[in-house]
Design goal:
Blueprint: H1 7-20, E1 25-26, E2 38-40, E3 50-54, E4 65-69, E5 79-83, E6 86-90, E7 93-94, E8 97-98, H2 101-109, H3 112-115, E9 118-122, E10 135-139, E11 154-157, E12 160-164, E13 177-181
Parallel strand pairs: 1-11, 4-6
Antiparallel strand pairs: 2-3, 3-9, 4-10, 5-6, 7-8, 11-12, 12-13
Length: 186
């Protein structure tokens, strides 16, 4: 639960859901939310690391790779190419000084095929002002497939009621499970 929804809206949704769907199943494990795969670079130098996060949550994002290519000669601008889920950035080079992280970020965001696959942000404590270095193709990691649930499916596990908050159900890339702790009425 994100905590941003007003409590009354959640309670109203829960009551409506329980009234319209009476089947509740016990589960061996709790449903899980989908998590996007990500890559945080760890390049030599300061202020040059970026975080790439898959736009689609789940393990499918682990197929995305990012590579930085040193052109080996002066090049006026970064060139981003995308082949399937492989994103390659040929770096700008001016007298052996390569692109900054900010320039790489802007080039990826300006390339629709790349921007459709990943979002890009400066890594913690990085300004983006530092020059990047060449980097072999590196896969995003850590994606988690969410538990698939039917429309407003309800599951009980370890004293919690979980509800898939979707009229159409969800997929491995959704994160719309909500949970309510059950307490005994005395």
């Amino acid at each position: 639960m994100s905590g941003t929804e007003p409590v009354n809206d959640i309670i109203d949704s829960l009551i409506s859901t329980l009234q319209s769907h009476t089947e509740i199943t016990a589960a061996a494990s709790a449903p899980v939310q989908a998590v996007a795969a990500a890559l945080t670079t760890a390049l030599t130098g300061d202020n040059n690391d970026l975080v790439f996060t898959a736009k689609t949550k789940g393990t499918a994002g682990e197929a995305i790779t990012i590579a930085y290519v040193d052109p080996g000669e002066d090049a006026e601008a970064e060139v981003v190419t995308v082949t399937g889920t492989a994103i390659s950035v040929t770096l700008r080079s001016a007298t052996s000084v390569l692109s900054t992280a900010t320039q790489v970020k802007a080039a990826i965001e300006a390339t629709p095929a790349a921007a459709a696959l990943v979002s890009v942000a400066n890594a913690a404590a990085n300004t983006g002002a530092g020059s990047v270095t060449a980097m072999a193709a590196t896969a995003l990691d850590g994606g988690v497939d969410g538990t698939v649930g039917g429309p407003f499916e309800q599951v009980i596990h370890s004293g919690y009621l979980y509800i898939a908050n979707s009229a159409t159900g969800n997929s491995v890339s959704d994160d719309n499970w909500y949970r309510v702790q059950l307490t005994k009425v005395s």
